[in-house]
Structure formats: structure tokens, C-alpha cells
Amino acid sequence: MFLQQLVNGVALGSVYALIALGYTMVYGIITLINFAHGEIFMVGAFVGLLLVAAFKVNVFVAIIGAMIFCMVMGVVIELIAYRPLRKSSRLSALISAIGVSIFLSSLALMVFGADAKGFPDGAFPVRQIKVGSADISTLQLLIIGVSAALMMGLEFIVQKTKIGKAMRATSEDYNTSALMGINVNRVISFTFALGSALAAAGGVLVGVLFNAVSFNMGLMAGLKAFAAAVLGGIGSIPGAMLGGLLLGVSEVFGVAIGYSSYRDAIAFTILVLVLLVKPTGLLGQKITKKV
Amino acid sequence: MADFLNSLVGSIDPYMLQILVNVGIAIVLALGLNVITGLTGQLSLGHAAFMSIGAFTSAMVTIKTGLPFFANLAVTGVVTAIVAAIIGFPILRLTGDYLAICTLGFAEIVKVFFLNFEPTNKALGLTVPPAKTAIPMPIYVWVVAILAIVLVTFVQSSRFGRALKAIREDEIAADAMGINTARYKIQAFALGSFMAGIGGGLYAHFLSYINPSDFGFLKSVDILSMVVLGGLGSVPGSVIGASVLASAPEFLRFMSQYRMLVYGALLVFLMVFRPNGLLGGVNLTDLLLRAIGKKPASKG
Q1: Searching chain B, which residue's CA lies closest to the CA of residue A220?
Q2: Contact A282, A233 (CB under 8 A)
Q3: Do A269 and B268 touch (CB under 8 A)?
């Protein structure tokens, strides 16, 4: 029972972590809460569904297709809705992000209709593997595996490549990086591309997991992933992973011990409690204010 | 008197009347958030939670007791303000985005609480009996809206309001100048929530049906958009922002299915072209004086 719920929780949590990474990276670089991120996750799920249902492709190909589509979308959104606002107040950029989010979800409502769509049968062959007392489905292994691979890929890009170095420099100090010859616009576009790709992968995985893709799935998933990012300490990549896993696991355990009608409140209660004790999140750095 | 008011309201097209009432309620809500976010600089993403607390309190007061409507609203406002003060005490220690996410999290918790709360019919929602007053609701709403405008204008130029602005500009400096920032922040939060509660009470009695899901994240965002669109910290700004955004979905109704699509795009474009809001950085008295030629146009 315990092991079973743990696996369920880790599978859900790694999806939260995938989405949370996009929030954290964007926040780390331009301190914008990208509220449209949840909608990118939703669009990713729809693209994946289309690829599987209409073009009969493999789930892995669908994930890659959705990632590429959303990369382009993330860059375009940044260009239209956020770049003109980079010098203005952060609240204006926040409202702009919310506008994009409303736009995308109503577009999805118009194109795909109000009811949830399911993946066709046999899109991903599910088998149960018995480990001790727990039944672990191949689907959960897929989710955990793909998420882990993507996060390792991200870690490699951020730590080992030149553009990753530029990202870290830009998040450290935007203006100095620009003076040092880093093309900050390109770094920001790249960050959006990377974050959107991860969200899209998360979208396809959630779509397969719950076998339901709908126009409003982005809102709650986005809010929870954002909560995960803040819980871990916003701006910190390992923090986002930790926060996502923690929220996923605690949500599944909360439901398992009988609080299913409070499902959506569990994540936020934990978030509020942690913030009260540690106001910058679990792995967040303490902010020292200059006077 | 009541007959006259009723005939007055009856002479307005019901559809227009509905929009007017929506605008009036939006003004009360936006002004409340303007005190918290515009004046004091504390970003709150949970204003709809206080609106829902107000709506349910007001509905329950009407159902359980026979209080006249103005007393009902007063009780509602005070209850909401007390809840806000209790919540504000711990969470207002957080700053910036952490406060924003905490208020958001709190709003979700309130929503889930009402979704599971037996006395208010859980997720089925509550049918609200008519308000105990002879004055028609639309007039009531607008009287309250005007009172709210007067109240916030008064607060803004008072000693209290100046302390709030000092906190917004630089909390540490304000603290060093002897302003009790913690106390002022909680007071501002309670005042803003008081107005949200009253807005919620009006909303409940005007629609006569409330559901916990009506007060979700998107409602908070709606109210925040009004304040930011109008221009943070500006009373006329909040009024205009509320009027524009509360009526926009109605005026966009002719394009029925593209309505929300256009609304989202509208938000983006308004922000891109007026990043400080419609009236951000505009001084109305200045403009007025300039218009009647009492003051030369300033350079730049």
C-alpha cells in the first residue's frame, strides 16, 4: 500500500516538477511569473493527442512533436506579450501573461470543444509489474523515466553548455551579462523554449496518464506546478524538482488517507505552511535587503 | 420614495441594468484591492476569496436573521475584515511574489473549504433570498459604489494613506521613519477585504445564487486586472478599469464565441501599449487645471 502510493505520488510529482522547471527558469531570469505556462502544458497535451490520434505515431514521437511545437510557441509568446513589457512594471507583465493564458484556453475551447478528449486505446500498451505488494504500471515507469531523462538533459544544458552558462550568468545579473557580451534576448528566448518544451512533455504524459485532455486542464496543473516551484524556492532548479515531487507525493497520500474532496487544497496548505516557516521556500536563498 | 426608485430602475433596459450593476460591484471590489495592491504595494492574488467569504456570510445572515440589508452588509464587511486580519497577521510578513502565491494558495483553500462546507450546501451552491430592503438592488449597489469611491479617496489623502504609500515605496525606509509597517499592512489588508466582503454581499443578493466555484483564481485575476489596467494606486483608474473590464465581455457578446479570445488578446495589447494602466501616472486635477487654462502644460 505504502509503496504503491509512493510510486503513484512520484509519477504525479515528476510531472509537476517538469512544469515547475519552466516557471522557475523563467522567473530566475526575468522575475516574471509566466501564468501562460499552464496553458502551454495544455497545448502540448493537445498536440500530442493529435499526433497520436490522427497520425498514429508512437507516444515518444508524439512527445517530441509536442515539445517542438511548444518551443516555437513559447518563443513567439515571449516575443509578442513579454518582450515589449520588459522595462515596465512586473505587474503589467503579469497581467499580460494572464491575458495570454485566457487567450490560449479559449482558443483551445473553440478548436477542440468543451469535453475532455481521451487518447485512443492502445496508444501506450499498459502492463502491470508486481514489485513486492505494489502494482506498478509501465505507464508510471514511462512518466518517471521520461521526466528523469528530461531533467537530466536540462541539468546538462544548464551546467555544461555555453548557452547554459549564459543562462546562469543572466539570472545572476541581467545588466552585467548584457555588458559582457551575452545576447540576453537570445538567452531569454532559449529559456522560454526550454521551459515550454518541458511543459509540453508533461502535458502529453498527463494526458496519457489520466486519459483525458481538456481545454481547462492547464489552470490547476499550472497553479500547482507554480506552487511547487515556490515551495522549492523559486529560481532554483533542484528546488523545483524537489517541490514537484513533494507536492505530488503528499497529494496522493492525502487522497489515500481519505481527504479526496480536499485534493486541490492539500498542495496549497503545504505551500502556505512551508512559506510561513521558511519564507523563501525550501531551497531558496535568503534574501538580504539592501537599505 | 421606494416606488419612485423602482419605477426609475424599471425604466432602464434590463440588460443595461445588469451591466451597470456588474460595473458597480466591480468598482467596490477593485477599489478594495487597490487599497491592498495599489496603495500598500502588497500583491494579492486572492481577492476573490474575501469576496466569497462576504457573499456566503451575507447570504447566511439573510437566511438566519432578519437584519435589514445595510446592517447585513456592515456585519458582512466586519466579519470579512476580521478573517482578513487573522490571516494577514502571519502571511503579510512575506513580500513580493511569495506573498502573491501565499494569497493564491489561501484563496484555493477557501474555495475548497466552501466546496465541502455543509451549511452552505457544498458544491451545489446557495440560493440567496431577496435582500431585506425597500430600495431596489441596482440603486443600492451604486450607492455603495459611490460610498466606496468617497472612502478610498478619503483614505488615500489621509495620514493612514500616506503611511501606506510610504510602505509601498520603501518598506525598510518607512520602518526606519517610525511607521509600524506590520500594523499598517494588516489594517490595509483588512480594509481592502472589508470592501471585498461588501462587494461579495451585493453580488450574492443581486444574483440570488452563489457557488464556491464562482470565486476561483480567475475572479481574483479579473479584479487584479481592473486595478492594474486602470493604474495602480489611482481611484479614478480603478473605477475606469472596473468599468472597462466588467462591461467588456458584454460588449464583446456580439462576437459570441470569440469573446474570451478577444478579451485575452485585449489584456495583452492594453498592457503592451499602456504598461502603467490607462491612468497610471496621470494626475486628473492637473489635467483639469490645464484644460481650463489655469496651469501651463508641463514640459516632457
Answers
A1: B217
A2: yes
A3: no
- Does the pLDDT value for residue B300 go beyond 50? no
ipTM of the complex: 0.81
Q: Report which secondary-structure segment, H or E, holds B127.
A: strand B126-127
* Single-letter amino acid, residue A219: L
Residue from A70, A48, A50, A36 nearest A219 by CA: A36
Q: CB-based contacts of B104: which residues, under 8 Å, 6+ apart? A: A223, A268, B45, B46, B217, B220
The single-letter code of the amino acid at A14 is S
CA atoms of B33 and B219, how far apart (whole Å)? 12
Q: Strand locations in B165-279, DSSP E? A: 209-210
Q: For residues B279-294, b (16+ Cβ closer than 10 Å) or e, as one string? A: bbeeeeeeeeeeeeee
**Cα dihedral sign, B277-B279-B282-B283:** negative
Would you say residue B65 has pLDDT above 50? yes
Distances in whole angstroms, Cα of residue A118 to Cα of each of A207, A211, A276: 8, 5, 40
Using left for φ > 0, alpha for ψ between -120 and 50, and beta otherwise, residue A34 falls in: beta
For testing the chain A interface, which of B44, B91, B109 should be mutated: the one with the most A CBs within 10 Å? B109
pLDDT in tens, A257-280: 888 888 888 888 888 888 888 888
Q: Which residues contact A219 (CB under 8 A, 6 or more apart)?
A: A38, A101, A105, B217, B218
Q: How many CB atoms lie within 10 A of CB A111?
A: 9
Q: Which residue of B has its CA nearest to A83?
A: B272
- Is the pLDDT score of B299 beyond 50? no
DSSP letters spanning A97-140: HHHHHHHHHHHHHHHH-SSPB-PPTTSS---EEEETTEEEEHHH
Kindly state the average pLDDT of the residues A242-265. Answer: 88
Distance CA A19, CA A37 (A): 8
How many residues does the structure list for chain A?
Answer: 291
DSSP state of A284: P
- C-alpha A41/C-alpha B48 separation (Å) is 25
Residue range A128-187, pLDDT digits in tens = 888 777 788 888 888 899 999 998 999 899 999 999 999 999 988 888 999 999 999 999
Exposed / middle / buried, residue B21 (Cβ in 10 Å: 0-12, 13-18, 19+): buried
Residues 31-90 of B with CB under 8 A from A: 37, 43, 90
DSSP A238-280: HHHHHHHHHHHHHHHHHHHTT-GGGHHHHHHHHHHHHHHHSTT
Contact between A176 and A55 under an 8 Å Cβ cutoff? The reply is no
